[in-house]
Structures are given as C-alpha cells and as structure tokens.
Design a protein that fits this description.
The complex is a heterodimer of chains A (346) and B (844).
Chain A lengths: L2 H21 L3 H12 L4 H6 L10 H38 L17 H15 L3 E2 L5 E3 H4 L25 E3 L5 H9 L4 E10 L11 E11 L4 H16 L5 E5 L5 E10 L16 E10 L1 H6 L8 E8 H9 L6 H4 L2 H4 L4
Parallel strand pairs in A: 1-4
Antiparallel strand pairs in A: 2-3, 4-5, 5-9, 6-7, 7-8, 8-9
Helix pairs in contact in A: 1-2, 1-4, 2-4, 5-8, 5-10
Chain B lengths: L1 E3 H7 L6 H10 L3 E8 L4 E13 L7 E6 L6 E5 L9 E11 L3 E2 L3 E3 L2 E3 L2 E2 L27 H5 L1 E7 L10 H12 L12 E5 L5 E4 L5 E10 L8 H9 L7 H13 L4 E4 L7 E6 L5 E3 L5 E3 L5 E5 L2 E5 L3 E2 L12 E8 L1 H10 L5 H7 L5 H18 L2 E4 L2 E2 L8 E5 L1 H8 L5 H9 L4 E4 L6 E4 L5 E3 L6 E5 L9 H12 L22 H12 L3 E2 L5 E2 L1 H6 L32 E2 L4 H13 L4 E14 L2 E17 L8 E2 L2 H14 L5 E5 L6 E12 L6 E3 L9 E10 L1 H6 L7 E8 L5 E3 L13 E10 L4 H12 L3 E10 L8 E10 L8 H19 L2 E3 L1
Parallel strand pairs in B: 12-23, 13-16, 30-33
Antiparallel strand pairs in B: 1-11, 2-11, 3-4, 3-6, 4-5, 6-7, 6-10, 8-9, 14-22, 14-23, 14-24, 15-22, 16-19, 17-18, 19-20, 20-21, 25-29, 26-29, 27-28, 31-32, 33-34, 34-35, 34-40, 36-37, 37-39, 38-41, 39-40, 42-44, 42-45, 43-44
Helix pairs in contact in B: 1-4, 6-9, 7-8, 10-12, 11-12, 13-16, 18-19
The chains are: A alpha+beta (346), B alpha+beta (844).
Bound molecules: zinc ion.
The site of zinc ion has 8 residues of chain A, from loops.
Chain lengths: 346, 844
C-alpha cells in the first residue's frame, strides 16, 4: 500500500459516501449511511486499517486526508438530516391537520340560581359595610313574626301580610324576615349590623309578580347615633352597587308598624331610566325595598333601651331585585327549575 | 282610595297638574298607584239638543229624533228611550264614537231609517246606573261641547296605609294636599232645618256593650221619597268606585267617602218600637244581610237589633229586612263608633269586609259620629226631600280635644340626622294641623307606648304637639319625628355613610352551603330553588328514608308532618321533609322541554313538628338523569349511572376537605333500586373539614351522611319519567345549618420515589368491593399513600360465583426510597389479610 493508492481510496470513499448521503430518503437511511461509512466497522475505518503499512512520514498526510473526508461526510449527513427531519415534520403536520371550524367539545357546566346569586351580591355590598349574616327559622311563632314587631293580633296592619298558618299552635310560616330583627337583638349587643337572608311565605295567589314563596334579605343596624341619614346613605350605596353608579334614587315615606319613621326606597326605572314606561307604572321609579328607623317598642322587645340606642332596618325581596338586575319578567320562573331559564345565568 | 280630582277640589284648591300632584302626594307618604283619566274612553261624544221627537214610522218602541250639536245640519237619530222631549240637552255619540267597553257607534239603519249616531244613557257612558233613560243634561250645558271635557275627570288611586284611616276620605286627603300647598281645607258645611217632634220621642238607643260601641248618634228623617240620586252624585260615586243605589243609600256612601265616616240608613218602619239595641248576638239568632245571605250569628258578633231581633251586623253590613226601599218614607240614620278589633274579627268571621268595615277597623274620629249623622241627614233631605226631626240621639256627646304628645326637638334631629331648629319643626307640624306649645317643666316624654310604656323626663328642651282628633297615629315622640320628616320631605334628609362602631366579626353561616354550591356548579350541576310547600302525594310517591345518623350539630330528618291550615291549594299544603321529590318535579318539567341532561341540585330545608315546636334541617340533594357527558359532533353521549352520582358525592366531600367517602350497600328497595343504592358516610379527616358553629369535632367524627341511589324503576314509572335511569342523592353535611370550613392543611411534598403495585384478588360475588379495599388499606400500614380499585372482572376462568377485584396501591416513605424487599413484604401482608378477612385469593 502506498500513499497514492490510499489517498485515491479515501477520495473514492468520499465520493461514494456523499452519493449515498444524497440518496438517503429518510432519517433511517441516513443513519445507515453514517454507519456504513463512518461507523466503528464502517468503510473509513476499513481504509485506515491499511495505514500501518505506510512509511511513518506518510501517515500524517493520510490522517489529514481521512479527517477531511470524515468532516465532509459528517457535514453532508448533518445537512441532509436537517432537510429530511424538516420534510418529515412537514409531512406529519400536514397529516395531522384538522378542520378547526368545528365546534368545541362541550363540557357540562352548572349555574348558580339567580336567587342565591342575588343574595350573595347583596351580602357582598352590605358585608363591606360591616354587616354580618344571621338566620332565623322559617316556621315562626306569631309572637315573633307579628306581636314583637308592634303588630298586635287583630291589628289592621296585619292586612299587609296575608299569612299561611300551620298546625302547630301559634305558629305560622314567616311572612317576612323581620322577626330576625328580634332574634338578632336578643343574641347580640349594639353595635349591631346584621343581614338576614331567607325564604318567606305569604297567602298570595301566584302571578307574574307574586308568589306564595319568595326570599327576602333583612338588614338591621343599631347604635347610639344611627340615624335616618345613615340609612339613606347606605341605601344609596347599595342601589349604586347593584344598579349602577349613576342610578337615581328616591327616599320617601312608607309604612311599617315596626319602623318609625318608615321609608319606601325607589330607584330610577331600570327599563326606561326614569322616563316612564309600563314596567314602572309610568312613574319612572321602581320600589326596591322598605325600611325605617326601628320602632322604640321593637327595640325594647329586643332588649335594647330605645332611649340610648336607635337604628334602622330594611327589607327587600330577593326575586324582585333579581328581576330588575337580570330583566326577568315572570316571578314564577324562579321556582319552576326550567333549565332553559336557569342556564342563562352563567 | 279612589280620588276624583273634581270632588277633591270641593275641599281644597288644587292648582297642580295631576301628575305633579300625584308625585307630591307620593313623596308625602300618600302613594298614588295610578292616575286614571275618567271619561277618556268617550271619544266623539258631544252635547246635543233635541229638536224634534217623533214616533218611528215602523216601530212603536222607537222614536225618531232630530238633534243639533251646534254646528252643521241637525242629525237624525233613532232612539229607544221614552224619557226624551224636545229642548232637552243630551249626550250624542257621533258616528265613529267609542263608548266604554270598546263599543263603536256607526251610522246604522234601524227599521228602514238611517240613524246618524246614538243618544246615550248614563249607563252606556258608565256615568250613572240608569240604563233605561237617556242621560238628560242640565239645560245650561254648552251645546256641541265634548262630554269628556265636561264630565271627564282625573281619578287618583291613593294607597292609604293602615295607620292613616283618617285619609280614607276626600277631606282627609284634602288635608294632605293642604300640607303640600298651604291651601285651606274646606270641610262640608252642614245646615239642617229641623222640624218637630224631637227625635227622642221617636227613637231610643240602648247600648248594652259600651266597650264595643263607644258612641251612637241617631238621626231621623221623615217624609223622604226614595229614587235615584242626582246625576252628579252618581257620577262621583262611580268615579270613586262605588255603585250608586238610591238617594238615601248614596247619601250614606257619599258621606263615608267625603269625611270618612261610615253610617247606615234603616227604614224606620223596620225598627220596632223605634228602639235600637246595640248588643252581642244571642245563640241561635240569624240575620239575612243586605247581600241576601241568611247568616247564623255567632255570639261574639256585635249587632244592631230592635226588640224583635237583629237588624244589622254592626259596622259591617245591614239587614235585608230593614233595607231602604222605594216605599220607605222615614229613615233612621246610624252614625256610631265601634271597637275596631270587634269589627275586624266580625268581618273576618263572616268573610264580609265592606268599605265601611275597613274604615271602622282603622278607628274613627269621635266628632265625626255627630258630623256624619248631621251630614247624611242633610243630604237625604237635599236629594230625597223630607225633613229632619229635631235633635239627635247621642249616647255619649263628649268629644275629646287634641291629644298632647311631648317631644324633644334635639332627639328628633338625632333620629333623622337633620339639623332643623325647634321653630322649623313646629312650622312643619303646623302644616298638617298639629299645633305646638312649649312643654311646661316636668312634662314627660313618651318614648314607647303600650301596656308598659317608656316615659322619660327630658333633660333638654321639649315641645308639646297638640294632635287633632283625626290623627290617631301620632302617639309618641318617634311619630312626631316621622311627621316632621314627612312634611319637610324625606329628600331633606342628608345622605351619610355610617361612621359608628363596627360590630365584631362573625363567620357567615352560609359558608359551608356556598362551598357545596360552588363545588356542584363546578362539576356541571345547576342549582334549583323549589317550593318548600309540596303536595302530600309527593311523600307517598317518593318516600325518602329518615334512618341515617346525621353529623353532630345537624338536625335529624323526620317527625310529624307540618300541614298548612289555610293552604292555597292541595299542591302546596304540607312542608316537605326531603328534597328529592322536588328534584323529580324539576326533571319532569325539563323532560317536557326535551332536555337530554338534567343535572340539578338544591340546598334546602326539611321541616317537622315536635309537639308544640317546629324543627327545621338543612340538606343538599342532587339529581342526575340522561347524559353524564354531553354528545359532541364526533363523540356520542354517555348515559349517567350510579358511579357518576357517587363521583359527585366524592367531589363534594373533597371540596369539604374530606376523604375518603364510604359507600355501603343499601338493599331496602323502594324508593331505591335495591341493587343500586348506597348509604354514604364521610368522616372528619386529619386535614380538616366542615364544622357546625359551636361544635368541637374530632378526627373521625361523622361529617357527611345520606343516600345516593338509582331510582327504583317502578317509582320512575309512577312519575311517568322518560329517562330510564335517574340518580338521586340527599346528604346531611356538618355545618350546613351554619358552620365553618377548616382551611385545608398542607403536607410536605414527598422527596423519595413512590412505588406502585397492582393486586388482583378473587373474592365471592357477595363481598362488596369496598370491603376488599378497606381490608387492603388496613393491612398496608403507614407507608400507604393511595389505594384505589381499578377493575372488577367476572368470567372465565373464574367460578361464576366469583369476581376478581383489581387494586392499585401506592407506597411511599418520607425518609427513603423503599427497597423491593420492603414492598414485597407489604404486598404479602395485604394478600394474607385479604385471605383472612374477605376470603380472597391472589390471582397471578
Ligand atoms: Zn319605566
């Protein structure tokens, strides 16, 4: 073996290898080329095995040629490999393409009931003013539902609450959350800021705006100087929170036996914004709650001295608030459980 | 209270536009519910004058008239009435006119003669009750004028609150208008020309129940001619919502609306011996009332009687036998003050509540007993002729002066949050007829009235309000404060946000309920709120068990059913004890609408009676029917089964920090599928959980209990459900009635590799899978991190009474990587425990 022969072999090997690289159709073929020419038992190793037969001074020269061949072939393999992987990736991506215009796969999801959601919204507003939640029973006694609230038996004001009575002596289904005022006052001491949500019942024929079961939220605040002005301020904040910062409000006299003075609280009609429409009886106003300064007799019934303390109470119909917030026109929808209705409150 | 503005103007000048007046009254606390244009219905009805009246050539009953309406050619109008004559002015409905009830008037041909319109009766215009005759207008009525301009009116419907009985009258509302405008109030003037003899010679009144009839004033009108009232009176009564009856009865009703005093007119002939006795009914007495119902009288009832028996139910309704009729010549007028409570009870007992009784219930202004008697007598004479006998019978002529209510102007300001001077407050009170004077030293102030009044000696300036007799609602200082606020306008109350002390923090009792709601909504359940009042039937159709132990602090279900004594309907007559029946109703509603998946839950109460007390408890229930997973365009839906429902129970438990949930077979059958029902229990984990307020709970205490089951097919049939499988659950949860949720406790993350092993164990068919898992769990020891069932296999090569349960357990130590030997030792321990406890053999 001489230098020239060996150099010629290496040159041929280079040409063969480059041809094989160019001919490789996929990464596996390329790996085979790599193995065939550059592997431990590949063609290059085979050629170099003859290097021992060369004179010592020729060996570095052959080594240099061999290294050059290796580098050239490796570079060719690498370059061709990039091309081949790119083509493979492109082919895979093309094969995996889907029609993205089809609808997404539906995931079943639930919704909270608008009554619960509205109670939570009311709770959040008053909670920020330090009101804490209390609860009372739904089967209430006549004494707490009426008499303690300054509504004696046979009082004409009882006409304001058509009552469902139950077969437990002197018990009824609470007609409002107001008896909770008595319970809160007996359970805690001023300063009091209490919120009482819950289910109420009335003997009332069902129509689009009346039901025999509904929900109320009662509020009670008692302290030494809590005044009608505080009530007005708080109700304004509430109305703005629920119906928008620009919502007009109206504070006017109302009547409840358990408040004195009593208040009716209106917001500008949410349908016509105060212009006047059928929804608001053309007045431009919608009453959202009743309120007033807690009657001294009621404070005393709650064990609080009306000469030292004073405060206010308010009560609102949750369904009514929900109807105004969500544009619901029929109260009956709340308790029917029709998912076509409930599914709208996402 | 319906208030015709034209009538209101008799008693006070009103210059305000009706809409403005309505708003001002509303802001004064007299809420105007609606403004009705009375007569707005009449269109193209004008005043005409009859020129000729001839009989119709082809019909005896008809007349042929010519009528001028001022401009244009006279109209030829056919008319069926007989009370018409030339020269009369009458209402003429022109062709194109519309009358009440959407009745359209056109040119018509009547028996061969064209009629160019119609002459109207009072009834057709709904002005009077006369349907037979044409309404004859006063001669000076302007020809051609639009009738709605002449007789049209604006009627305000005022919602008078129960404490303001005084405002259930035109004079009362005129006082409110006066408070707004300052215009003086005109009370009706009463002048009577009395004739002999003295009334006392004819009429004697004995009040046997002076507590229930504190005053009785009687008047006697003789020589009356009963007939219809003047048209104007009829129109006013109609506009105010009352039906005109006769000139005598109308006088009584007119005065009731005018000054708020109900009175009654008896035919004097029917009052035997001229003696009226006010007493309670006696056992067995009966009375046919004016509505021609024969009533057995309850001995509690206060009645008006004569020596022969009852002639009226006091304050509520007169008797038919003493009714004023066309043959009546002498009338006894009763104007009495009755006990409000007695009248209210009587009205309720007989389900008879009249305009009169509603006013009696709210209390009466004492002087109006006298004024009412005089005014009714005067109107009877004016409208029916006759004359009034001299004097009155009056059982208690004393009339109280204004009541004295002391108040502290500074205290009023503290209550209202306003800054008015005492003089400013006094000026406001003066606008509603409440005079004031400086309180003499030592004048007590009533803070709270009632049987145990709170009276204080004021340390600050006090003023005495002199409250007129008709304002029976102003009794204490707070009432005066409201009156000042009301007259001054609530709009004058400043808007402040409270700056007083905050109460102590209190955890919300809604916390656990809200957490469960959130968890269920998150797994695709929609919250429903259904009626607590249900049909008794639903308890039979879906009898839910009451035999589960409940977590501490939560009430057990069951007990005597609570029934409504006065239900609106049978459908809603008892209080439910369980929620699932209501959820089945929801399913029925949604099946009707074609829903493919119904997944709903409710957080609600059950109710029972325990002797004289009521009991209530909170539960959460859910229903799953139809698709567990909805279909997609490229994937079919999967039908829900019990495992889905159990998964939901597990999600709830996980949200509450509880793991694991135990399901035990419940083979009771009805209402459950006997092979697909489980009792659910979960216990307080070391990592926390829900706790009812006020209860200290320890690890292992029961926190969730209840049932999850597939509905028995025969129950589904009874409810006529379309969905073949319905999954239901009801759970008691610690803290549901009001409690807190402990924060979840974090555990350090493992630093060493976990090892998992699968084990298949063959057991007898009747061994529950949960028993296999539990036995393995106990045997695994402290290194067990997780254990779960991942397959159940039946079939060859197993015996047919066997099944293979495959379990995967994960072992992990906190301080080292486990060796193979350790893992094999634990697996062997599990295998031998399974052999001993559930008769299982390891399948290899
Ligand atoms: Zn509107």
């Amino acid at each position: 073996m001489d230098l020239a022969t060996m150099t010629a072999q290496l040159e041929r090997l280079r040409a063969d290898a480059l041809a094989a690289v160019a001919a490789a159709a996929d990464p596996a073929g390329l790996d085979a080329v790599q193995l065939e020419f550059l592997g431990r038992k590949g063609a290059l190793t085979e050629v170099l095995r003859g290097i021992g037969g060369l004179p010592a001074e020729d060996r570095p020269r052959v080594g240099a040629v061999a290294n050059d061949v290796r580098e050239v072939v490796e570079a060719a393999i690498a370059a061709h490999g990039v091309d081949l992987r790119g083509a493979a990736m492109a082919a895979r991506l093309a094969a995996e393409a889907v029609d993205v215009t089809t609808p997404g796969r539906r995931i079943a999801r639930g919704t909270r009931h608008p009554v619960a959601e509205t109670i939570a919204a009311i709770d959040e507003v008053f909670g920020r003013f330090g009101f804490v939640v209390f609860e009372g029973p739904e089967i209430e006694d006549d004494v707490t539902n009426f008499q303690m609230l300054n509504i004696p038996s046979d009082h004409p004001a009882r006409d304001l609450w058509d009552t469902l009575y139950v077969d437990i002596p002197d018990h009824l289904l609470r007609t409002h959350t107001s008896p909770g005022q008595i319970r809160v006052m007996r359970e805690t001491r001023p300063p009091i800021r209490a919120l009482l949500p819950g289910r109420c019942f009335r003997y009332e024929a069902v129509d689009a705006s009346h039901g025999f079961e509904f929900h109320q939220v009662e509020g009670l605040m008692v302290d030494e100087g809590t005044s009608l002005a505080d009530l007005r301020g708080l109700l304004d904040e509430f109305a703005h929170a629920l119906f928008g910062a620009g919502r007009a409000t109206r504070f006017r006299p109302g009547y409840y036996p358990f408040t004195e003075p009593s208040v009716a609280f209106d917001v500008g009609c949410v349908v016509c914004d105060g212009v006047g429409c059928p929804a608001c009886g053309r007045s431009g106003w919608m009453t959202i709650l009743g309120a007033g300064m807690v009657h001294p007799v009621v404070l005393r019934n709650g064990g609080i001295d009306p000469e030292t303390y004073q405060g206010f109470a308010f009560g609102m119909g949750v369904e009514r608030i929900a109807m105004l917030r969500h544009g619901i026109h029929d109260l009956r929808l709340f308790m029917e459980g029709d998912l076509r209705f409930l599914g709208q409150f996402r | 209270m319906r208030v015709p503005l034209s009538w209101l103007r008799d008693h006070v000048d009103v210059d305000l536009d009706p809409a403005v007046l309505a708003e001002r009254l509303t802001l004064l606390g007299m809420e105007v519910k609606s403004i009705e244009r009375w007569g707005a219905e009449w269109r193209s009805v004008v005043v005409g004058e009859l020129l000729t009246v001839e009989s119709h050539p082809r019909a005896d009953r008809l007349s042929l008239t010519t009528v001028t309406v001022g401009a244009g050619e006279p109209l030829r109008i056919v008319c069926g009435a007989t009370n018409i004559a030339p020269g009369q002015r009458v209402p003429v409905a022109l062709p194109g006119a519309v009358l009440p009830g959407e009745r359209r008037i056109e040119r018509t041909e009547k028996m061969g003669v064209v009629s160019e319109g119609m002459l109207c009766s009072g009834d057709e215009l709904q002005l009077t009750t006369d349907a037979d005759g044409i309404l004859i207008l006063p001669a000076e009525t302007p020809l051609g004028a639009d009738l709605s301009d002449l007789y049209g009116d604006v009627v305000l419907d005022v919602d008078v609150k129960p404490n303001r009985g005084d405002a259930l009258s035109l004079v009362g509302l005129a006082r409110e208008v006066s408070a707004i405008t300052g215009a003086p109030v005109r009370s009706p003037a009463v002048t009577l020309d009395e004739v002999d003899p003295e009334v006392a010679r004819r009429l004697r009144v004995v009040v046997e129940e002076p507590a229930l009839c504190t005053r009785f004033v009687g008047r006697w009108v003789t020589g009356v001619t009963v007939g219809p009232s003047p048209d104007l009176v009829q129109m006013r009564l109609r506009a105010a919502g009352m039906r005109p009856v006769s000139n005598v009865v109308d006088a009584s009703n007119y005065v009731m609306l005018e000054i708020g005093k109900p009175t009654h007119a008896f035919d004097a002939r029917a009052v035997h011996d001229g003696t009226i006795v006010v007493r309670r009914a006696r056992a067995g007495e009966r009375l046919e009332t004016l509505d021609h119902v024969d009533r057995a009288l309850d001995p509690e009832t206060l009645i008006i009687a004569d020596p022969a028996g009852p002639i009226g139910i006091a304050g509520v309704m007169g008797g038919a036998g003493s009714e004023v009729s066309e043959s009546t010549t002498d009338v006894v007028v009763e104007s009495a003050i009755f006990d409000p409570v007695s009248i209210r009870r009587t009205g309720q007992r007989y389900a008879l509540r009249s305009e009169a009784s509603l006013r009696f219930e709210k209390g009466q202004d004492v002087p109006t007993a006298r004024i009412g008697a005089d005014r009714v007598a005067a109107l009877i004479v004016a409208w029916s002729g006759g004359s009034v006998l001299r004097g009155r019978v009056d059982t208690d002529p004393r009339e109280p002066g204004p009541s004295r209510v002391a108040f502290r102007p500074a205290r009023v300001e503290r209550l209202l949050g306003t800054t008015r001077t005492a003089a400013g407050q006094r000026a406001l009170l003066a606008r509603v007829g409440v005079a004031t004077e400086d309180a003499p030293d030592g004048t007590p102030v009533v803070v709270a009235a009632g049987p145990d009044p709170l009276v204080v000696q004021p340390a600050e300036e006090a003023v005495v309000a002199l409250v007129p007799t008709w304002r029976r609602d102003i009794l204490i200082e707070a009432d005066v404060a409201e009156e000042i606020a009301r007259v001054g306008g609530y709009d004058a109350v400043p808007t402040r946000t409270p700056e007083t002390l905050m109460p102590a923090f209190r955890p919300s009792p809604l916390g656990v309920r809200d957490a469960i709601r959130e968890a269920l909504v998150g797994v695709g359940f929609t919250e429903v709120v259904t009626h607590a009042l249900v049909a008794p039937r639903s308890l039979v159709d879906l009898p839910w068990p009451d035999d589960t132990e409940v977590p501490a602090g939560e009430a057990a279900s069951g007990g005597r059913l609570v029934t409504v004594r006065n239900p609106l309907s049978q459908q809603h007559s008892v209080l439910r004890q369980h929620l699932p029946a209501s959820l089945l109703d929801v399913l029925v509603v949604n099946e009707r609408h074609g829903a493919e998946r119904v997944a709903v839950f409710e957080v609600g109460k059950g109710y029972a009676a325990d002797g004289p007390r009521a009991r209530e408890w909170w539960r959460v229930a859910f229903l799953l029917a139809g698709h567990a997973e909805p279909s997609a365009w490229n994937r079919p839906a999967r039908a829900a089964d019990l495992d889905d429902a159990k998964g939901v129970v597990e999600v709830v438990a996980e949200r509450l920090g509880l793991e694991p949930v135990t399901f035990e077979p419940d083979r009771r059958g009805m209402p459950f599928h006997p092979g697909r029902a489980a009792r659910v229990t979960a216990r307080l984990a070391a990592s926390g959980g829900p706790r009812p307020t006020g209860f200290v709970m320890a690890e292992g205490d029961l926190t969730v209990s209840g049932h999850v089951a597939e509905l028995h097919p025969s129950v589904a049939e009874r409810w006529e459900l379309r969905t073949p499988r319905v999954l239901l659950a009801e759970l008691a949860v610690a803290g549901l009635g009001g409690g807190t949720l402990d924060p979840a406790r974090a555990r350090p993350l493992p630093r060493f590799q976990a090892v998992d092993r699968d084990l298949a164990v063959v057991v007898a068919e009747d061994i529950p899978a949960a028993a296999v898992v539990e036995a393995a769990r106990r045997a695994a020891g402290d290194l067990l991190r997780e254990i779960r069932l991942f397959d159940v296999y039946r079939g060859a090569p197993l015996d047919e009474r066997e099944k293979s349960v495959a379990i995967r357990f994960v072992l992990q130590a906190a301080d080292r990587t486990l060796t193979d030997a350790e893992v094999e030792a634990i697996a062997a321990g599990i295998a031998s425990a399974l052999g001993a406890e559930v008769g299982g053999r390891i399948r290899t």
